[in-house]
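Format notes (please read before filing issues)

Several people have asked whether sequences and structure tokens are stored in separate files. They are not. Every record keeps both together, in the order shown below: the sequence lines, then the token lines. Line labels are part of the format and must not be stripped during preprocessing.
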Amino acid sequence: MNTAKYLRYECRRNLLPLLLFTAIACLVVGIIFSTSTLYYNWPYIVPDGNGSPQMHRPSDSLLAAPAVILVVLCVIVSVMQFSFRMKARSADLWYSLPVRREKLLFVRTLTGLALVFIPYTLSYWLGFCILLGRENYFFMQGYPLYFLASLPLGALLFGFCSFIFTRANSVGDGIVFMISWTFVLFLPHLYVNFLGVSLRPLNITSFLPFGPLIFVTETFSELICRTDTLPSLLPLACLIPFAVAEGVGGYAGLFLTARRQRAENAEQISASLWGYKTLIPWFVFFFSSCIIPDDGQLPLILWALVLIGGLVGYIVYRRSFRLKLADILSLVLTFAASVLISYLNTYFIIPAL
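Then the structure lines:
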């Protein structure tokens, strides 16, 4: 089976989901762009003092709606396109096809991007046409520019989501991995804020996988609404390399590990280093180290909850209450180190800062 033939098959197979995603996206954007308030009246005093006429000010660019749709599509389509590897029967079927693993993933990725960008594009320009038919005071040239800026960010986000999801051996684990990795870089930022160190002009959303898209959306929203002071573009120096690294790294990891995927791994325990083995100690450490120890019972209760949460995480990982010694040691040592760090932060590091 050549690539073109398989691509045609995938296009036919995904036609119904494509129509469904497009209809839902257009419906959501159509309702929001048709019913939302586009401007408000702002009273001001003219220089000669002869009255106070009303100035029309844009209220909201509504860019958040298509941005959320783009993020949701990247997540849902990643699950839909690569879940075939996580069921024993379908994995045997797909891997038995007379097509190389890389070509199989390439076609799946290509059709996945189509499932993301066709609904996003049609719904976005539907919203734009609706705005053209309504009275508004936007800088309308900003909408095409934002669309062009959002496309590469969406493609990079899809690569990252696909890679993280495919590190699991079951759909449930893959979804847990994607949710968890959303906050992996958020926790160090939370820890730094706990120490009283500011990372401005970056904010707390900058460290989410879709943080660059959030920043670009906010920037163009300010431009479209003709805000007098635009946000600083300095964060782009960090966010653009971050987006490129996570996206390109995701695609590279997806294809470079294609030959190591085995059908017999489907529905088995997800033992990847990108999964529970790393995520559980990571979350336990940062949650525990951000608890302030004092003479009350609250820190003890919070530490107990973190420890219980880590234990539950390992039970979910192993799918059994019988944990391995390595799991218990990892949890205990990580928890002990984080409690020690918490005391050091409270009594030595924070006072020194």
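For reference, the curators noted about this record: The mean pLDDT is 87. The longest strand covers residues 39-43.
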